[in-house]
Amino acid sequence: MNKGLLKTWKTDKGFGFIKSDTLEHDTFIHISALKHMSRKPKIGDTIYFEVATQPDGKTKAINCRIEGVAELKAPYQKHNQQPHRIAKSNFASSFLGKVASIALIAALCFYAINKYNTHSSSQTPIITNDLATNDDLATFDEKYPKVVIPKNTQNFTCDGRQYCTEMRSREEAVFFINNCPNTKMDGDSDGKPCENDSRF
């Protein structure tokens, strides 16, 4: 941060030059670099500033402030008490808004559940007194044949084998297609693995 005196100032143009003992040349300063100050600069003011080089190679003062002159407070700065009141108000309104939103969602859920229950109760349940006959059971057995799982399966474990050539017995193959993933031993999906394997 440099320190210097405002050597010249053109009020109508909004710029001037700062003379600093630490810099070889006077530094250009524009009014926009002091817009946060509570008054406009005047010749003889002590200016604190940093130097930036412009694309044309010339330098200008940035991040400036006038010694002894108050800065205008931004809304987010701590020294300004008004934002605190606004923040509290915003907090209260946002809290009430959240409560209102939750209440609205709860009311909509209650309404939807109530409507669903009313709709469900208005439907007459279909009750059939038909009993299954022996013919029905026979047809069921044909459509859904029973899969016989060998009792002695305690020695069989899923170990990644997938093919009939890897099986030691038909019982093991049956265990694998019923209990292990990704097996490729029942091409026609009839529950009978390795039907074409002459070893079994």
Automatic annotation (TrEMBL):
SMART domains: CSP, Excalibur. The chain crosses the membrane at residues 95-113. PANTHER family: CALCIUM-REGULATED HEAT STABLE PROTEIN CRHSP-24-RELATED, COLD SHOCK DOMAIN-CONTAINING PROTEIN CG9705. This is Cold shock domain-containing protein. Residues 1-66 form the CSD domain. Keywords: Membrane, Phosphoprotein, Transmembrane, Transmembrane helix. It comes from Pseudoalteromonas arctica. It comes from the Bacteria. InterPro entries: Ca-reg_mRNA-binding_domain, CSD, CSP_DNA-bd, Excalibur_Ca-bd_domain, NA-bd_OB-fold.
